[in-house]
Design goal:
Length: 416
């Protein structure tokens, strides 16, 4: 029985473990935490074929510079002298072209649609107990300018074959009466789905434990040894581990671990914030509040309010002004919903691994024949979890992959 070590216990790592176990592998998962928090647990829970436009879109650089010094803005970059971040930013600006975004659309759409199929398969699999909702996601706008942009994007989504409805203010209120008069309309992406992330992660981990997967938790990877073109051992604070294959799915920490192997896989942690309201809100359909970039999701027993993209380094610092910006957006878009001081005090954060071109890294290393990388999904990590795991397992098993991995090759920025 082949043995695979997976570095990282987030959604990509655990989904990879699932498909490898299904293929008959012995698996060890190593994680610096206890697999109970972070972006894989606190995200909005969306499965989003609608998100086919890369984060590295034209105009995003100018918008980021405009918002850079506003700590309440949807995209906040904390000014700092960090050469790795500056180099990443240069690569981002080079990727933010219409041509490159256009080329990424079929890739992102294919990944999300295949992942949605795999979630549906998991939902019907014995041993998996989680809620799965097909209500779609509303993209709600409160200004005419944003409305024009969203409707233009909706037209493109229709051309891409996705299920989409455009709603004026009246139709939106009829569907979700809790919206305020500030909401001028919405695009309803019926193609999207949502689940409760911590519920899914819990049932997935239990399945893996029942199948004999070993979890090495609370252990930081200190070194990755190689001989020639093969990884020979992974050393943590508790000891060394060997296996035939190694999967690097360490999220925002991938860059530092890859550097130990002299690989350049640029990833920056984009911090997101999340608050759970455990009382009735009247919200029954997920929504993204477009101008504020805030996601609202009715989950199993609570409503989650999440948002923000903050580049301030790999840390879990909670910035109160960013939490307040999310709360203010909720009050603006909804009637009679206000997040209390107590609820804001329980806000959590997680780091999304962001690549410079908005595409994830999935595939085998060119340098090390037994190393596979799976990271860089930005805000679509949870949406793409199963397809990432499936593709990694196919690579390790020497099978034809469901999706062409050439645009996702881990060392595509080598030489920059």
């Amino acid at each position: 029985m082949k043995h695979t070590i997976i570095i990282g216990g987030g959604i990509s790592g655990l989904c990879t473990a699932y498909y490898l176990v299904e293929a008959g592998h012995r698996v060890t998962v190593i994680d610096r935490g206890d697999i109970s928090g972070g972006a894989s647990f606190i995200n909005a829970g969306y499965l989003t074929p609608s998100h086919f436009i890369s984060l590295a879109a034209p105009g995003m650089v100018a918008r980021g510079l405009k918002w850079m010094f506003d700590s309440r803005s949807p995209l906040y970059i904390r000014p700092r002298w960090d050469m790795d971040f500056l180099r990443w930013g240069l690569l981002f600006s080079r990727s933010a072209t219409a041509k490159k975004v256009e080329a990424s659309i079929p890739v992102l759409k294919a990944l999300n649609l295949r992942s949605r199929e795999l979630y549906e398969e998991l939902y019907t699999t014995s041993g998996f107990d989680f809620q799965y909702h097909r209500d779609g996601v509303l993209m709600v706008y409160a200004t005419e300018k944003e409305g024009k942009e969203e409707l233009k994007l909706a037209e493109r989504a229709v051309r891409e074959g996705l299920e989409v409805n455009s709603l004026d203010a009246g139709a939106l209120k009829a569907l979700q009466p809790v919206f305020s008069d500030k909401a001028l309309g919405a695009v309803h992406y019926l193609c999207d789905r949502h689940i409760t992330p911590n519920e899914f992660m819990g049932t997935l981990r239990k399945w893996l434990e029942d199948k004999g997967v070993s979890f090495v938790l609370g252990q930081e990877v200190k070194a990755i040894r190689a001989s020639g073109n093969r990884i020979t051992a992974v050393h943590t604070t508790s000891g060394g581990y060997t296996a035939e294959n190694v999967v690097l799915a360490a999220g925002s920490w991938t860059f530092e671990l890859a550097r130990k192997l002299r690989l350049y896989i640029p990833v920056q942690g984009g911090k997101g914030y999340s608050m759970d309201v455990r009382r009735p809100t009247g919200i029954s359909i997920p929504a993204i509040l477009a101008e504020a970039r805030v996601a609202v999701t009715p989950m199993n027993g609570f409503t989650r309010f999440a948002g923000s993209m903050e580049f301030s380094g790999n840390n879990d610092i909670i910035r109160k002004e960013r939490v307040q910006a999310i709360a203010d957006a909720v009050t603006h878009y909804y009637n009679d919903i206000e997040i209390s001081e107590g609820e804001k005090s329980l806000a959590t954060s997680g780091l999304r691994p962001v690549s410079p071109d908005g595409l994830p890294y999935i595939g085998k290393s060119r340098i090390y024949s037994n190393l596979v990388v799976a990271t860089g999904h930005a805000m679509m990590g949870f949406s793409m979890g199963p397809v990432t795991g499936k593709l990694v397992a196919q690579v390790i098993n020497g099978e034809k992959t469901d999706i062409d991995l050439k645009p996702l090759r881990p060392e595509r920025f080598r030489g920059y």
